[in-house]
Write a structure and sequence with these properties.
This protein has 260 residues and is of the alpha/beta class. The chain has a single domain (3-257), classed as P-loop containing nucleotide triphosphate hydrolases (Rossmann fold). Helices cover 40% and strands 24% of the residues. It is built from eleven helices and ten strands. The chain has helices spanning 43-50, 73-78, 96-105, 112-116, 120-139, 155-168, 185-202, 213-219, 237-240, 244-251, 253-257, and strands at residues 3-14, 17-28, 32-36, 58-63, 66-67, 81-83, 173-177, 205-209, 222-227, 230-235. The strands form two sheets. The protein has a six-stranded mixed beta sheet, with helices on both faces. β4 and β5 (66-67) form a beta hairpin. The longest helix has 20 residues, at 120-139. The chain is globular, with a radius of gyration of 19 Å.
Amino acid sequence: MKERLRIEKLTVRFGGLTAVSELSMTVAAGEIRGLIGPNGAGKTTAINAITGVVPITSGLILLDNMPLTNLAAHQISHRGVGRTFQHVEPFGDMSVLDNVLLGVGRHSHVPFVHALFATAIADRGEKQANSDALNILERFDLLSYRDSLASSLPFGILKRMDLARALAARPQLLLLDEPTSGMSESEADHAIAAARSLAESQNITLLVVEHNMRVMMALADSVTVMQHGCVIAEGAPSDIQLDRKVIDAYLGEELSDAAP
């Protein structure tokens, strides 16, 4: 299977604190990889390093065998890397539909001159974008909120919108940081099923940080476990559930309860 993301001995230090220590990981194209670990394990720092939000101290990050290391965040985004944050950053004065349309617009192929002069080609492109956005809203059970201002919505709904918007952009690699936080169990189940379906249909590779172990075990093809900035285990969800090092590290009964 084609390799999408490769990380080699990634280290991130903040002064005297080592947040990530020689992290190595390979993620295949189309794979859904879970990244779990206790608070302070270095998960979000790793995502921030991949997306250029924080500088790396040493190591190598490759997307489709092309280095991302030391590129600016906007350059990494243009290479096809998307992400969500633990705390949603919506355009509050825009509707839910318009927020998702921003994601759809990232892969629009309408030439600038046609958009500028509102030609028939631009009109068809706009209608297609609107149709795509509505389809994604339906998948995430958000159609009833299409005209609602993002600023008026509760956190759980905003998290679903954020996930829908990120997937609408069709990145090659999408990094999700706590995508189901603030959702009820039923909302989380629905959102994760929709995310998996869209990712598989569009061959989007997902790297997911998630504390809800029941969700993670249902979503991920494989799981990487971090502790104190290092990888302590990696494998299929069913194997991770039984790994004594992982259970001893932090999961305990929570991981057992997540088993189907």
